[in-house]
Amino acid sequence: MISEKMIRMTENGSAIRAMFEEGARMAAKFGRENVYDFSLGNPNIPAPEKVRQEIVRIAAETDPMELHGYMANAGYPEVRARVAASLNRRFGTAFSEDNIIMTVGAAGGLNVLLKTLLNPGDEVLVFAPYFLEYGNYVSNFDGVLKAIPANIEGNFQPDAEALRAAVTAKTKALILNNPNNPTGVIYTAETVKAIAAVLEEKQKELGTSIYLISDEPYRELAYDGKEVPYLTKYYRNTLVGYSWSKSLSLPGERIGYAVIPSECDDARLIFDAAVIANRILGFVNAPSLQQRVVAECLEESADVAAYDRNRKALYEGLTEAGFECVYPDGAFYMWVKTPGDDREFSENAKKYNILVVPGTSFACPGYVRVAYCVSLDMIIRSLPAFRRLAADYGLSK
Amino acid sequence: MISEKMIRMTENGSAIRAMFEEGARMAAKFGRENVYDFSLGNPNIPAPEKVRQEIVRIAAETDPMELHGYMANAGYPEVRARVAASLNRRFGTAFSEDNIIMTVGAAGGLNVLLKTLLNPGDEVLVFAPYFLEYGNYVSNFDGVLKAIPANIEGNFQPDAEALRAAVTAKTKALILNNPNNPTGVIYTAETVKAIAAVLEEKQKELGTSIYLISDEPYRELAYDGKEVPYLTKYYRNTLVGYSWSKSLSLPGERIGYAVIPSECDDARLIFDAAVIANRILGFVNAPSLQQRVVAECLEESADVAAYDRNRKALYEGLTEAGFECVYPDGAFYMWVKTPGDDREFSENAKKYNILVVPGTSFACPGYVRVAYCVSLDMIIRSLPAFRRLAADYGLSK
């Protein structure tokens, strides 16, 4: 008998796989151009040209021993120093290389941080709706994920009062994903201040340290000049997980970093333990070539304006068709209210070759996530199909 | 309180860090050219020129969306098919892409396999001396590592009878590292057959599946035309973890693969679970650019002849000085018997600016590991220092 935990996961995993397979089947049957796949958070804007130039330049110029050899498990000191300097310049922080660990994407970074923090039975809080994978990351280290219900009336801004009710003596961390997947909402400075105040109060009351883990792969995807608060400035015990997957469209390369500010409780111990966790989980270090590439591209970003055009076209099209959508300020997801059950809705959408993810997959039924990291052309072509779907539900105006 | 397991590890970790720091201190004090650092298994032979050419070509020619985007968590199907074809051609196996998962190095692959297999309390066997990191990998998933004592009389070939005595109903796996770190010994076909026979017998007797995990980052580093048996041909329940870290000198890039042969017990389930484990541990997938690079370099290898020259020079120099060494057939390590305690010996060696790792760090006291993935020049310059050390122990002839 192999791992029972993993056997259970292969059984649960099949629903998601079934969706991918359905997409492929539909494309084969109807032609790829007639299938409207909004199910995946895979960036469709290419990496900036500078990424290509730097790969070529670095490979051509660097001694291969230096380029591909081991370095400190935390990553190249000079790369970490440049990441710290970039954060300091943009957010007014005061990090140095000793606060930065280069990681295998944000997923790798979150696993490293959770392995560092959690004892079996420790609780990790998250606000619904949330990326369900967090539950797996927490379970890897025998922690318990507890979801705080979605604040639907509050336009999906986390509710600090609900947080107060959820914190216990076993609460080790709160994961905050801002801008949010799946809602596209940016948590405001006011929201963050209220959360920080509750955490401070609870730390004092319980005599514990509660770490705020900021998962921010979508930080650079904010529209209309909206600000995404930098959490270490609002709450002392903040740890950050970042990835260039979205901002530089490099999801396959697995490159990101974690921030462990010096002012955290047990900061030095957490840093040292996280470096060891990075090693013994088998990451060892973030991929060496990509560390050097991102260090040269800290001022670059994917073409956010293209996602913005998609956002506007999709929002306009869906609201015109009669759907109620959360107007997204960040990321590349539209959060759409479903008339009736969300799983049923996503099944019905398939009749029109539309693929969307039910809100149930983010612990928030009654909505679907429409990922608009697709071509604008596909969005425009999909709108008649969305209108027919709306008509079936009696929504069309 | 952060993870107690990790706090203990930061305390243990400091001994190794102290050695690195000592090396840096010595280099600063005496000059780098006067310090003989044989402590690290970091390849000193550069990656083949084709690696550089392929990085540049692939980056220049490939659509960045395809090159840096997500792919199946198991890796690009075409890369996996080419890896399978290369194994089939070289070892007479019959793998397809459905038997291969691209991994973040062998360390990532081993963690994925262990997460897939282990229930808490399951035992994983290993023959001493062994890479102590295995203990951490097993402990990540609450397994119990049990070491089988070194077969010193049998020239460090694993002893099948000792294996028979060690297997229990809780034995889930045996990790075999061939060619071996730290001894440089290649386990022969006879050894492998004897191990396979015991495992078959015990599986029948206990009614369990016992997986043989072949950790083979040193496979291509074999000298004098010595053959490294391909374990899936000797034992049905074999899983393989491989890395290009040593064969292509790419340790910083974190690229390898796992093999899950179709004839294994629960092969399909293991494959599916391993793909999920790869995702939820935070690897997600092996770095995308490097997947394409290694697929073009399957026929390449680092300059093994250079390691061979080092091997001969070091063996000759050390035996001439009076040391008793295991003559290494593979990898880039010399296993040297210490007159007296190995930790004391490695301390005494520092007086002559020689850094070597005590056998105690591989669960086998009475020896030290001398890593000869260094310049031939350094080996030659170090020999007078080794001779003085031998004289202190009354060894010199």
What is the structure about, briefly put?
Chain A has 397 residues and is an alpha/beta fold.
Indicate how many domains the architecture of chain A comprises: 2
Q: In CATH, what is the class of the largest domain in chain A? A: Alpha Beta
Element string of chain A (H = helix, E = strand): HEHHHEHEHEHEHEEEHHHEEHEEEH
Largest interface: A-B, 73 and 73 residues
Q: What Rg of chain A do the Cα atoms give? A: 21 Å
- Order of strands, widest sheet of chain A: 2-8-7-6-5-3-4
State the low-pLDDT regions of chain A, or none: none
CATH fold-level label of the largest domain in chain A: Aspartate Aminotransferase, domain 2
Note down, in words, how this protein is organized.
- The structure is a homodimer of 397-residue chains.
- Chain A folds into two domains: 4-47 and 303-392, Aspartate Aminotransferase, domain 1 (Alpha-Beta Complex), CATH 3.90.1150.10; 49-296, Type I PLP-dependent aspartate aminotransferase-like (Major domain) (Aspartate Aminotransferase, domain 2, 3-Layer(aba) Sandwich).
- In chain A, 54% of the residues are buried.
- The termini of chain A are far apart.
- The longest helix of chain A has 27 residues, at 4-30.
- Chain A has a seven-stranded mixed beta sheet, sandwiched between helices.
- Chain A is α/β, with parallel strands linked by helices and 397 residues long.
- Helix content of chain A is 43%, strand content 14%.
- The model of chain A has no long low-confidence stretch (mean pLDDT 95).
- In chain A, helix 2 crosses helix 10 (288-296) and helix 4 (77-91) runs parallel beside helix 10 (288-296).
- Chain A has helices spanning 4-30, 49-61, 64-68, 77-91, 105-117, 133-140, 160-166, 189-206, 267-280, 288-296, 304-320, 342-350, 376-392, and strands spanning 36-37, 100-103, 123-127, 144-148, 171-177, 211-215, 238-243, 256-259, 325-326, 333-337, 354-355, 357-358, 367-371.
- Chains A and B meet through helix 1, helix 2, helix 3, helix 5 and helix 6 of A and helix 1, helix 2, helix 3, helix 5 and helix 6 of B.
